[in-house]
Amino acid sequence: MTVVIGVHRSNPSLYHLSRLGYAEEELAALGETATWHPYTDGVRTGAHLADGTIDFGGTGSTPPVTAQAAGHDIVYTAVSAPRPDHGALLVPEGSPVRTVADLAGGTVHLAVGSWQTHLIAKALDDAGLSYATDITPVRGDSDSEEKLRSGAITAWVAQGAELAAARRTGGLRTLIRTGEVITDRSVFFTRRDLAERRPEVVEALTRALRRADAWAAAHPREAAEIAAADQGGTVDDWETALRALPWTIEAVTEEFVAEQQEAADIFHRTGFIDRAITVADALPRKA
Question: How far apart are CA 49 and CA 180, in angstroms?
Answer without folding.
Answer: 32
